Amino acid sequence: MPQLGFGVWQVPDADAERTVGLALEAGYRSIDTASVYGNEAGTGKGIAGSGLPREELFVTTKLWNGPSETWQRDNVLREFDASLEKLGLDYVDLYLIHWPRPMRDDYLAIWRAFEEIAESGRAKAVGVSNFRPADLRRLRAESPLVPAVNQVELHPLFPQTELRAVHAELGIATEAWSPLGQGKELLTRPAVETVAAKHGRSAAQVVLRWHVQQGVIAIPKSVTPSRIAENLDVFGFELDGEDIAALDTLGAGPDARRIGPDPAVFDV
Ligand code: NAD
Predict the structure, then answer these.
(1) Which ligand 1 atom sits closest to the C-alpha of 99?
(2) Which SUPFAM superfamilies match (predicted)?
(3) In the chain, how long is the greatest CA-to-CA distance?
């Protein structure tokens, strides 16, 4: 899986073909969409229009385990078929459970269906998103299939230190959503600006480099061509220990702050 990918949340379906096309042209090879983003069809058109061989691309989508009360095998398989159809693909590289919704207590049943999907080869790998340490341990205890990835909110203001240690222990790759903190206050924090000035790079590049150097997979989103290119251009410089320490102070201890919902209470 490429360590840097392109996220398409909030890209309208009508724009997704063009935006995904721009990202693939700029050099991205990994695209992160989801059923609930409503842009799998446009994303699929962008992929098809790129003319790139399928095996050079890494496509992720996610199960929106929302509309029914409690999810069963059949709901999952039907949703997965619908996603493949919209994308115009006969397999995805990664299929994720979008949210654990622990209050519904059905992610184990969903994961059984994910085991089947993985077995069929129609998803080359399966994983989860927004799972907490207890959810991951429960899956580990109940299933022989370890999630390949847990995609979670992660950036210097919310570094997920405890969760990353659990991932390392269980052999799960960490993928960061909102890796730029959604382009909000994180990018204007003095610590970020100072490190950016030191390297002659943008704030976004410094934050993405922080992810890369820690072995985290990041999927920044932009619809602006110059930023799409800028966000991928983070392999030609290196942060030193002092830079990393300065960025680490932003989310240390009680300063850690989420932007998005808390998986413990979020029910799609
Ligand atoms: P992000 O951290 O990638 O920030 C994107 C925003 O930052 C852009 O809209 C723009 O305003 C700004 N930006 C982008 N590049 C910039 C640059 N170079 N300079 C300055 N500003 C810049 O936030 P995101 O879109 O929330 O997250 C990225 C992807 O993560 C999504 O597109 C989606 O694929 C995924 N995601 C997944 C979940 C989940 O529950 N699994 C939740 C949210 C997002």
Answers:
(1) 40
(2) NAD(P)-linked oxidoreductase (SSF51430)
(3) 54
Residue 199 known to bind ligand = no
DSSP 90: S
Neighbours of 47 (CB within 10 A): 23
Instruction: Please count the CA atoms within 13 angstroms of the CA of 165 that sit on its side-chain side.
Output: 3
Q: Is 43 in the pocket of ligand 1 (CB under 6 A)?
A: no
Does the annotation count 37 as an active-site position?
Answer: yes
Closest to 61 in 3D by CA, of 114, 102, 138: 114
Nearest to 82 by CA among 62, 108, 59: 62
The predicted pLDDT at position 72 comes to 87
- Cα of 179 vs centre of ligand 1, distance in Å, is 6
Answer yes or no: pTM beyond 0.90: yes
6-251 — its CATH code?
3.20.20.100
What order of strands is seen across the sheet that includes strand 58-63?
Answer: 6-7, 30-32, 58-63, 92-97, 123-129, 149-153, 173-177, 217-218
Q: What does the domain layout of the chain look like in residue ranges?
A: 6-251
| Three-state secondary structure call for residue 204 | helix
pLDDT digits (tens, 9 = 90+) for 130-159: 999 999 999 999 999 999 999 999 999 999
Cα 95–chain centre separation: 11
Q: What is the mean pLDDT of residues 86-111?
A: 96
